[in-house]
Amino acid sequence: MATTPELAPRAPPVWRRYLELTKPKVVALITFTAIVGTLLASPGFPPLGPLLFGNLGVALAAACAATINHVLDRRIDEQMARTRSRPLPSGQLSERAALIFAALLGVAAMTLLAFLVNLLSAVLTFCSLIGYAVIYTVWLKRATSQNIVIGGAAGAAPPVLGWTAVTGSVDPNALLLFLIIFVWTPPHFWALAIARREEYARAGIPMLPVTHGVEFTRLQVLLYTVLLTVVTLLPYLTRMSGLIYLAAALALDAGFLYYALALKVSTRAELPMRVFRFSVNYLMWLFAALLVDHYLRL
């Protein structure tokens, strides 16, 4: 009896390959925090221009930075199981095509922000793009185990960018939002780094679990989570937010502390990824609480 040959897996359509270059889940979270910054900056509903074009510009810039990151990390991605199927290491797209795509995204982002929002938003967004796509990816990521701490400044910028789109200035409350994400980034990313320690070691990336060991990294996750708990109380203590936000922050902080403590005392293999996934939901719900509190107080 003749057997039917196995069919080769069908390559995804071209648009999906380009979409994957932008890291859509990451861009979605970045854009959400920027939108929250835009809405919190206004006592009522912000002007439509800054809300629409400001956050579209931030989203396009984030997609540009992610695409450049794909190009610069292609050889590293080839050595890691979770990334080797990405469009560049798998050969679905060329580096030239990715760079052209990144250039189009970057030009579109800067044009929107400079001409339809304000120049400060464009300058700060460009600095964040360079900070992540070049300074972090090219230098910090390969130079120090504190790469994610220092480079976290670029990832913490979106709510400031959203805020600046409305006010044209960098205000103290915007910097509080920046501080929350800045402190959140290490425990979020180090949990993933613990889970992928062997892959980072094979690729020669000096992530903290590779250079200082898993136990030390587990302790750092816990300590940064304690610090994050303190920082997330600042919006209430400074009267930026009210009791609704405080209640949500306390509940979310309790959950994060529980996971961080469990990670410290347990060696269960699934815990690092559970902490990582919880941290993503944590940030999303924390910023949603800021938004709900803002409008209910109004």
How is this fold's topology laid out?
Layout: H1 14-21, H2 24-40, H3 48-72, H4 74-77, H5 95-116, H6 119-143, H7 147-155, H8 158-167, H9 172-195, H10 197-203, H11 208-212, H12 214-231, H13 234-237, H14 243-265, H15 271-297
Task: Throw out a few tags for this protein.
298 residues, mainly alpha, 15 helices, 0% strand
Number of strands: 0
Global geometry: globular
Tell me the helix content: over 70%
Beta-strand fraction estimate: under 5%
Topology order in helix (H) and strand (E) letters: HHHHHHHHHHHHHHH
**From the alpha-carbon coordinates, what is the Rg to the nearest angstrom?**
20 Å
Structure annotation, total helices: 15
- Give the overall average pLDDT: 92
Q: What is the end-to-end distance?
A: 75 Å
Report the structural category: mainly alpha
Strand count, sense and barrel status of the largest sheet are: none
Would you identify the regions where 5 or more consecutive residues have pLDDT less than 50?
Answer: 1-8
